[in-house]
Design goal:
Blueprint (H helix, E strand, L loop, with lengths): L1 H20 L23 H33 L9 E7 L2 E3 L3 H13 L8 E7 L15 E5 L8 E7 L1 H8 L11 H21 L4 H9 L27 H9 L2 H7 L3 H9 L13 E5 L15 H9 L1 H8 L5 H9 L3 H10 L13 H23 L5
Parallel strand pairs: 1-3, 3-5
Antiparallel strand pairs: 1-2, 4-5, 4-6
Helix pairs in contact: 1-14, 3-5, 8-9, 9-13, 10-11, 11-12
Length: 394
C-alpha cells in the first residue's frame, strides 16, 4: 500500500509539472505590433529633434490662433453674452474668419439643443476649420487636433473651441460626399457634439473649482471629452472588441496597469485610474489651452471609454449633485465620492461593466493544455494501478 501511495504521489506531481508547462497568461500573447495603437519607428536624433521643434511650433501657433480668435470675436460682438448668444459659430478657411455655412450653423445649434444647453453663463465660440491649412513658412498643421481655450482672468465668460474639419467633413459640408456612400446629417451633428469637448462642460456647469480644474488639466481633460451621457451605443472600440482576436489583446496591452485592473473589476484599480492627476498641486496653465487628438487610435486612454466618464456621472446623479462636485473646494476624491454617494472605485467598476465584459487577470491554463495534462495524468495512474495489481507477494 505504501508503494502504491508513492506511485500515486509521483503521478500527481508529474501532472502538476505538465500543467505548469502549459500555463501561459490568460488571454492571448501580444502579436508584437499593434493594429490600432501602433507606435512609429524610432527616428534618428536629428529627426526626433526636428519633430520636437515642429510640435512646439504647432502648439505655439495653436495658442496664438486661439487667443487671436477670442480677441476678434470680442471685438465683433462686444462680448458674446452681450449679444444674447450663448453659442456663436464661425468658420475658418485659409486663415480667414468668416460666417459658417448654413449646414455647419444648423448642426451646431442642433447639437447645442440636444445637449440640453440654452442660455448659459459661459458662452462658447465654436470655430470650424473647413479646409486643411497649408503654410509655406512652418510645419504642416495637425488637422486632427482640436484646441480649446478655457475662460481665464482676461475673459471669464467665453470658451473657444477650434475644431479642424479635415478633408472628409470639409467635403461633406461642400456636398461632395453625401448620399448612400456618405455620412448623414445626424453623423455630422454627433461630430459637432464631440467637437465642443471641454467647452460643453463649461457651458453646462460653469467654471470648475480649482481642485477639479487642476485635476482635469493634469489629465488633459481625458475624462470630460463628451458631455453627452446615457446608455452605451455599443459602437466604439471597446464595444466591438472580441477577446478571440489578437487585436483586442493589443488594445488591452496598450493600456496602463490601472486601466487593465479596472477592466478586471478591481475597484482599487478603477479608483486609481480615475483619480490619477488629483494631487495637492492645484496649478494649471494660464492661458488654459487644451489640445486634444481626435483620432481615437492615436490616443491611448487611461481608462477604457474614459472620455465619457464625467458626462455619464452627470447624467446618472443629476445636475445638482454633479454641480456640488464640480464647484467643490474639497479634494477631488472626497468631492466625487460625496456626489456619487459611493466610493469612486465601486461606482467606476459598475460603470465599466456597461462597456466591456470583465476580463480575468493572472495565469490560466488553456483548454488544450488542460486536456493533455489530464490525459497524461490518467495514463500514469492507469499504469500505476495495472502494475500494482500484477505484483506478486512472495
Amino acid at each position: 500500500m505504501a508503494s502504491l501511495k508513492r506511485w500515486i504521489g509521483a503521478a500527481v506531481v508529474a501532472c502538476v509539472l505538465v500543467g505548469l508547462a502549459y500555463l501561459p497568461p490568460h488571454g492571448a500573447k501580444s502579436s508584437g505590433h499593434s493594429t490600432f495603437f501602433s507606435q512609429p519607428p524610432r527616428g534618428t536624433p536629428a529627426r526626433l529633434r526636428a519633430q520636437s521643434l515642429a510640435d512646439a511650433w504647432r502648439a505655439t501657433e495653436a495658442s496664438l490662433r486661439l487667443l487671436t480668435a477670442r480677441r476678434d470675436l470680442r471685438q465683433r460682438v462686444h462680448g458674446i453674452n452681450a449679444a444674447g448668444q450663448s453659442l456663436r459659430v464661425m468658420s475658418e478657411s485659409a486663415g480667414v474668419m468668416m460666417p459658417p455655412p448654413t449646414l455647419v450653423d444648423s448642426a451646431a445649434h442642433l447639437a447645442w439643443r440636444q445637449l440640453g444647453l440654452g442660455e448659459t453663463k459661459v458662452s462658447v465660440a465654436l470655430i470650424t476649420r473647413l479646409r486643411p491649412l497649408v503654410t509655406r513658412d512652418g510645419p504642416v498643421p495637425q488637422e486632427d487636433v482640436s484646441s480649446y481655450l478655457a475662460p481665464d482672468s482676461t475673459d471669464r465668460t467665453t470658451c473657444v473651441a477650434v475644431v479642424p474639419a479635415g478633408l472628409y467633413w470639409s467635403r461633406y459640408v461642400a456636398g461632395e460626399v453625401r448620399g448612400r456612400q456618405g455620412a448623414s446629417f445626424e453623423d455630422f451633428v454627433q461630430w459637432v457634439k464631440a467637437g465642443l469637448g471641454p467647452c460643453a462642460f463649461y457651458a453646462a456647469f460653469g467654471t470648475p473649482s480649482r481642485p477639479v480644474r487642476a485635476w482635469l488639466a493634469a489629465r488633459n481633460w481625458d475624462l470630460a471629452l463628451t458631455l453627452e451621457g446615457g446608455p452605451p451605443d455599443r459602437q466604439g472600440l471597446w464595444f466591438a472588441s472580441d477577446p478571440r482576436y489578437p487585436w483586442y489583446w493589443d488594445a488591452i496591452y496598450s493600456l496602463p496597469p490601472t486601466a487593465v485592473g479596472c477592466l478586471a473589476a478591481r475597484s482599487d484599480a478603477c479608483r486609481a485610474a480615475v483619480l490619477a492627476g488629483a494631487s495637492d498641486d492645484q496649478s494649471f496653465p494660464v492661458p488654459d489651452i487644451v489640445r486634444i487628438e481626435r483620432r481615437w487610435w492615436d490616443r491611448v486612454p487611461r481608462l477604457a471609454a474614459g472620455q465619457r466618464l464625467l458626462g455619464d456621472i452627470a447624467t446618472s446623479i443629476g445636475r445638482e449633485r454633479f454641480l456640488s462636485f464640480w464647484t467643490s473646494t474639497q479634494p477631488v476624491d472626497t468631492a466625487l465620492a460625496l456626489a456619487l454617494k459611493r466610493p469612486v472605485g465601486d461606482w467606476t467598476t459598475d460603470w465599466q461593466r456597461d462597456f466591456v465584459d470583465p476580463i480575468r487577470l493572472g495565469p490560466m491554463m488553456p483548454l488544450g493544455g488542460l486536456a493533455i495534462a489530464c490525459a497524461i495524468a490518467g495514463l500514469a495512474l492507469a499504469i500505476v494501478v495495472i502494475s500494482a495489481s500484477r505484483r506478486q507477494v512472495r
